[in-house]
């Protein structure tokens, strides 16, 4: 879509405002809104100036002038603003017009260009399954006089004893997969989310209640190319959060907001295509996978300890990545096996639907950086012919959770903490910098930001410590 077409749309659809959206290094969106009458072709060509020093992970105050350049193909109508508003995703440029190296969306675009330059494929497709919770109430605080969090949900099993209305049909601990109404009390809210997602341009495939109690849900939308899927994931989170707020609820994509029940992951389906030809399919191969697909898997599993610093970048991520909660901590691949870090879907799969599913990531990741990092690891595997079978990454076609310690002795596990993952990224980051996709500056900035978060958490007194140590 060119500028004339967008301006025509603004006029014919009576758009009152245009909202320009950017994303910081951590993955949070920010926006600036311009009256539609002030938007013209120069606006689209020259962009919107903003202060880069006010965004996490961007420039210092002494060099803070930056420009948001709209990607007009990303435009959609905002369903949550009273005045009719057109939202447009932007890329970040320096004042001299060059792309800003730390712009996450720019990094994703460089990865797609690098893929085509290698001649391995024309497109990389990604399809995330981003789980979330809808709570009715959340409170939290952290300070010198106290530290706590408190959540509640009308679905939660811990509410069956309240002296209020009829409190039957609660979701048991780990018992929330696919129940019908009235146990699934949030079907109408997810329906509304799906409607708005579709109106905004996403192709919704299905939705359902997830395993955990207290309102865990999942909505799946159709895969797309790397950068577009990252755009769609941020739009998805925006719509989920705002629909929840409309209904007096709050949505969270935290990996582990509830102690003792399943967490929320972001399983990421991936495949490579050459035009319309799928490159991951080979009939008769393991899981009907091609040699290229196996090498791609080898790259992801080989680089997984470093990769996970970008796909699971919060301290909370590692409270999900523990055995016993269907968490994919085992760095192996397998067909149809959800206890492996990489699952090969085999049910109702056509050649074009043949793909791999990396199950370890979660939605605290910046999708532009996480998807790019996965692609770069996979491409490194293809270039170096990293066969996962020869590297000891499987396949393992049994429930790994039920294996004995002796049987699991040779199976690598995901890092046990953010500190471990960051250390691995520091050691193993060259694969990310191939083709100048990531830069040393970006990786260093990411590690510094995340170590700062880690330090904050480590220095905060935990209520559990009072329980364990107060009377010693």
UniProtKB/TrEMBL annotation:
<dbReference type="InterPro" id="IPR004809">
    <property type="entry name" value="Gln_synth_I"/>
</dbReference>
<feature type="binding site">
    <location>
        <begin position="269"/>
        <end position="271"/>
    </location>
    <ligand>
        <name>ATP</name>
    </ligand>
</feature>
<feature type="binding site">
    <location>
        <position position="326"/>
    </location>
    <ligand>
        <name>L-glutamate</name>
    </ligand>
</feature>
<dbReference type="Pfam" id="PF00120">
    <property type="entry name" value="Gln-synt_C"/>
</dbReference>
<keyword id="KW-0436">Ligase</keyword>
<feature type="binding site">
    <location>
        <position position="131"/>
    </location>
    <ligand>
        <name>Mg(2+)</name>
    </ligand>
</feature>
<feature type="binding site">
    <location>
        <begin position="221"/>
        <end position="223"/>
    </location>
    <ligand>
        <name>ATP</name>
    </ligand>
</feature>
<keyword id="KW-0963">Cytoplasm</keyword>
<dbReference type="InterPro" id="IPR008147">
    <property type="entry name" value="Gln_synt_N"/>
</dbReference>
<feature type="binding site">
    <location>
        <position position="338"/>
    </location>
    <ligand>
        <name>L-glutamate</name>
    </ligand>
</feature>
<dbReference type="GO" id="GO:0005737">
    <property type="term" value="C:cytoplasm"/>
</dbReference>
<feature type="binding site">
    <location>
        <position position="205"/>
    </location>
    <ligand>
        <name>ATP</name>
    </ligand>
</feature>
<keyword id="KW-0547">Nucleotide-binding</keyword>
<dbReference type="GO" id="GO:0019740">
    <property type="term" value="P:nitrogen utilization"/>
</dbReference>
<feature type="binding site">
    <location>
        <position position="357"/>
    </location>
    <ligand>
        <name>Mg(2+)</name>
    </ligand>
</feature>
<dbReference type="GO" id="GO:0005524">
    <property type="term" value="F:ATP binding"/>
</dbReference>
<feature type="binding site">
    <location>
        <position position="320"/>
    </location>
    <ligand>
        <name>L-glutamate</name>
    </ligand>
</feature>
<feature type="binding site">
    <location>
        <begin position="262"/>
        <end position="263"/>
    </location>
    <ligand>
        <name>L-glutamate</name>
    </ligand>
</feature>
<keyword id="KW-0067">ATP-binding</keyword>
<feature type="domain" description="GS catalytic">
    <location>
        <begin position="104"/>
        <end position="472"/>
    </location>
</feature>
<dbReference type="GO" id="GO:0016020">
    <property type="term" value="C:membrane"/>
</dbReference>
<keyword id="KW-0460">Magnesium</keyword>
<keyword id="KW-0597">Phosphoprotein</keyword>
<comment type="similarity">
    <text>Belongs to the glutamine synthetase family.</text>
</comment>
<dbReference type="InterPro" id="IPR014746">
    <property type="entry name" value="Gln_synth/guanido_kin_cat_dom"/>
</dbReference>
<feature type="binding site">
    <location>
        <position position="210"/>
    </location>
    <ligand>
        <name>Mg(2+)</name>
    </ligand>
</feature>
<dbReference type="Pfam" id="PF03951">
    <property type="entry name" value="Gln-synt_N"/>
</dbReference>
<dbReference type="InterPro" id="IPR027303">
    <property type="entry name" value="Gln_synth_gly_rich_site"/>
</dbReference>
<keyword id="KW-0479">Metal-binding</keyword>
<feature type="binding site">
    <location>
        <position position="359"/>
    </location>
    <ligand>
        <name>L-glutamate</name>
    </ligand>
</feature>
<dbReference type="GO" id="GO:0004356">
    <property type="term" value="F:glutamine synthetase activity"/>
</dbReference>
<dbReference type="GO" id="GO:0046872">
    <property type="term" value="F:metal ion binding"/>
</dbReference>
<feature type="domain" description="GS beta-grasp">
    <location>
        <begin position="13"/>
        <end position="97"/>
    </location>
</feature>
<feature type="binding site">
    <location>
        <position position="352"/>
    </location>
    <ligand>
        <name>ATP</name>
    </ligand>
</feature>
<dbReference type="InterPro" id="IPR036651">
    <property type="entry name" value="Gln_synt_N_sf"/>
</dbReference>
<feature type="binding site">
    <location>
        <position position="129"/>
    </location>
    <ligand>
        <name>Mg(2+)</name>
    </ligand>
</feature>
<feature type="binding site">
    <location>
        <position position="218"/>
    </location>
    <ligand>
        <name>Mg(2+)</name>
    </ligand>
</feature>
<dbReference type="InterPro" id="IPR008146">
    <property type="entry name" value="Gln_synth_cat_dom"/>
</dbReference>
<feature type="binding site">
    <location>
        <position position="267"/>
    </location>
    <ligand>
        <name>Mg(2+)</name>
    </ligand>
</feature>
<feature type="binding site">
    <location>
        <position position="338"/>
    </location>
    <ligand>
        <name>ATP</name>
    </ligand>
</feature>
<protein>
    <recommendedName>
        <fullName>Glutamine synthetase</fullName>
        <ecNumber>6.3.1.2</ecNumber>
    </recommendedName>
</protein>
<feature type="modified residue" description="O-AMP-tyrosine">
    <location>
        <position position="401"/>
    </location>
</feature>
